[in-house]
Structures are given as structure tokens and as C-alpha cells.
Amino acid sequence: MGLRRTISDVSDARAVTNGTEAGYFWVAQDGTWRSMTYQEFQRSIDELAAQFQAWGLVQGAPVGLIATTSIEWEWADKAILKSGGIVVGLEPHAHIDQLLYCLQETKIQALIIDDLALYERLVPFLKNPLIFAVMLQRGENLKLAASFRYLDGKTKNNPTIPFAPPPVTDTDPAVIVFTSGTTGTPKGICYTHGQVLTACRAIGDAFPQINAGLSIICWLPLANLFQRIVNLAGVMIGLKIYFSDNPKTIMDTVRQIEPSFFIGVPRFYEKVYNELQKIVMQKSPWQQALFERALHYGGWRTLRAQEKVPASWWRSFIVSIVDFLIFKTIRRKLMGANIRFCLTGSAPTPLPVLEFFHAIGIPLLEAYALSENVVPMAISRPHAFRLGSVGKILPPNEVKLSPEGEVWVRGPGLFSGYMNTESSAAERVDGFYATGDFGRFDEAQFLYLSGRNSDLIKTSTGRRISPLRVEAVYSQSSYIDQIVVVGQGKSYLSAILTLNRAAVEKALSLKGEPLPSVERDDRSKAVLDLLRQEFERLNSTLAAYEHVRAIAIASEPFSIERGELTASFKLKRQIIAEHYGSSIIPLYEKVL
């Protein structure tokens, strides 16, 4: 496809080489799938970029883009870049104060938004006047006038305006992203066109089995740069991109589209796993026993793929029979007949979830990315993974560990510093950036993360404990849905958790005990006894000072709406601790 120096070059080149092929798909208002060729999409980008220029957008101007995932988001994103602007993508469900902070920090000159009520809440507090503000609407046929409406009525759309491409190069800024804000105020980071393309090439090189013509689904928040990079890598390869704007129906979309691979956050896979467990629990005892045995055989395949057991023709034969009779049907009903693997990151995935997906023949691969490095730092591959590891280092990154075990990285994807702050050079040693994450390499150079420096809990006894490590161990319990470990300045650890009520109900029913109401979970002796046994069982893999000695059971899952999770479902520990402060205090008066 020739030399691609800017993000716009990618779609330009694809429109030339495969212009008449349908590359973009979305659901119209009548519920049917519509499509657009690469050439049609490119013409739409040029048309909208020309309109942005006519409205006064100049090269280097930051443009805020606050909208849910849709093909219109992708369209606006590419048009901003084509006209030389810088995309500031923000999550529409973020707290209003955080949105205002990010908009002010980047000094946006224009705004594209899909929620008029949110626009009216934001605009009065913006300090800098906007060149234009546009309402992004779901257009039936993706026509300019139908999808973009100038909010103050001063200017009308004029799709006949000629477009004069600005002289954008690979060193020009393309996007501004913000850190997740799990430990404080989000920080802005700017990446160039060249850096984003480096990330796309790295991902494409990591998965050579993903070929032109295959399908992927875009459903994660496009404010998250990783989904945009995956989409762009897909255009580079020639994939068909299906846009889904409703996370609640994503599994229906998956079964309908039957993608070749799928990307989701750990929480998504946990929910799928829990729903499947509910279905299994409704089967007869002999069917449950049969399924458990099948998972055992599927585990052989996982062990062999990790080179933990020698090759064996008879084991391979048994696994192939089980796969044909049981797992093939499950895979088809779950994610379609074409699924090759799934990818996840942003937080650790519980080991039972990983084991389950691998056993049924859908490798669930973990990756490791950092806001401060646009190229994912490590990634697992279908034939090169270790459960619990984030994979091997992804070139062109260079990664090493400090003497204390902190992960250091350098490479072309590394950020140059946080916006509106002094240079981060103090955090670098010989060009390596200290990530704040701790980990280790095994003998095969797979990277295992053990926690983050900012998350470490320092107890009153002087111990420094990684809550991520402790949570990962207890998350292996089928009775626990979510768990947050606390204990800063205390003599022992406690935890706030939510229950997998289906698993708890099954366990209690076997003992002849009824499942209590949600409000009485933490007062039920049967539930507490069940959890006590689980904690005692799992404590064997933890040091004594890492044991959780008291728990509080939350009545509802941690959520994005209450600010307890980021848009990528990372735990906001400080917020959760504040919300459950009244429950935490008594934990240091009684123990498990």
C-alpha cells in the first residue's frame, strides 16, 4: 500500500487498493445492517474535513470529541485528522468535572458531541470561545447534513466546498489522551501520527494470522485510544469493521457477525463466564459432571500449548473428540464459528476465567499497555502465552526491570511528557521510563505483573503489599464477582467484595441452605462460612501478612456511573474506599 506517514494515508491507500469493497458496517435506525465501501468512506472524510476547514479549523487545533461508539465517531475522528486537527477523545459517561478539566487542559478550539444536554452543561464553563460546536446525530445514510448539525445556527453545511489538505507529517500531533485517573487527576498525553502508526504496525505484526477480509467488531469506547488503533490496524490489513453502539447487546452482535477475533476488558469476560456458569448450574447433576470432565480434558490442551506437559497422541485424540462433541457447539453459540482468539487487558483477568476460555478452545490472551507508551508493551499470542502472564515484549519496545523489579520501557511509542507540566525526564534513566508497575520475567521471557507502586498498601506493621496480587488470588473463587483489598495503615488486610450469587446459591442449595436477600448477605452465617472456607483454601498461595482477615459484602456491583470504575473498568480504589467507608471501619473490629 506504499509509504504511510500519517493516519490519513492509511484510509487513502485502502480506498485506492480496495475502494469498491465494503469495509465499514453499522446498524441503521430500522435495525438492519448498512455498509459503506472504503472509497465511499474516504470521500465522506474528505467532505467533512473540507467543512471543518470552512468553519475555521486550522492545522494543529485541538478538537474535543465526546460521543458514544459509532461509525459517526470514526468518521469525525478521521475528518479532524485529515484537516490537520488534533483529536481529543473523551468518554461521555465521565464525571462532568473531569470532562471540563480535560477540555480546559487541552484548550479545545472546537467540539463535536452527541448529547445536547451534556453540551449545554459544559459550554458555559469553557474559558476559550469555540470556533464551532457540532451535534453528532445518528444519520440513516451517513449524509453530512443528517449527521452533523451546527449548534448555534450561524453556518450551514456546504458539502461542495473544495478541500485543501494541510501539510501534515508523521511528526505532527494527532491525538491527545488522558491517563485513567485511578490515582488522581488525569494527565494529558499527546502522540504524533508516526507514533500511532508504529503501534498499528506492531499489532499487525504480532498477529500474522489476521488476514484481509476477516471481521472485527468495534464496540469499546472510542475515547480509549486502543480501540482506535485496532480499527486503524484493521484498515491497514483490510478487515471489515462492524460498529456496535450498544454494549448490552454485544453478544447478540458477536453471534450475528461471527468475528475472527474479539477484544474486551476483563470484566466483560467475567460476566460471560458467570452467565455460562449459571446455565451449567441449571443442568442435571450428570450433565454438570460431564461438563466438568470436559473442561478437565480441555485443560490438557491449555497445558500443552504452554509447553507444561509433553505431547501425547492419546491426549490429543481425547481432546479432539471432546472438542468436536461439546466445545465446538459452545464456541459457535457463544461467539460464532469463526472465532480464533480473544484479547484483553487494562486489568488482571481472574485465573478461572482464563482457564475456562482456553479449555473450550477460545484462547483468551492478556496484553499490557500503558497510557504513557502508545505501543502495547507486551502481548500474548495464540501459540505463545502463559496463563497469568501479559505475554512477551512487543517490538519495537525495549523493556527491562530495575533492580527493585520495576518495569522500565523505551522506544518510539514513548510519550514526551505530560501536557502543561515540566518534562518527565526525571522519571527516565538512559531513555527508559519508569512505569510504576512491578513484575518479573520467567525463563521463556514471558512478563508477569505483580502490582503498581501507587497501589501498594503499607500496613502499620511496615509491610508493603500489592493489592492486585492479593485480589488475583481471591478472584479465583467462583463465589466472588468483584473484590477490592484495603488496609492502608492498618495491621491487616480487609476486603470489599460482591458475590457471584449464582455460584453461592448452588453451593448453599447443596447444603440445604436458602440464599439470603442481597441486603442480608453480610449477616448470613451460611454465606460467611462459605467465604471463610474459600479464603482459607486460597490463603495457601499467599504470605501470612497478605491474608484478608475481614470482609464487607457490597449489595451492588462497583460501577462506572458511581465513579468506582474507569471507562475501561479499572478499579478506582480511593473512590470505592470512600463510598464504603462506613463498612470498612467495622472490619477492624471483627475478623473472618
Concise account of the structure shown:
With 592 residues, this protein is of the alpha/beta class. It has 18 helices and 26 strands. The strands form six sheets. A seven-stranded mixed beta sheet has the order 7-6-5-3-4-8-9, sandwiched between helices. Strands 12-13-14-15-16 form a five-stranded mixed beta sheet. Strands 17, 18, 19, 20 and 21 form a five-stranded antiparallel beta sheet that branches.
Arrangement of strands in the largest sheet: 7-6-5-3-4-8-9
Q: Helical content, roughly?
A: 25-40%
CATH topology title of the largest domain: Rossmann fold
Number of domain modules: 3
The CATH architecture of the largest domain: 3-Layer(aba) Sandwich
| SSE class | alpha/beta
User: Alpha-carbon distance between the termini?
Assistant: 62 Å
Radius of gyration: 25 Å
Gross geometry? globular
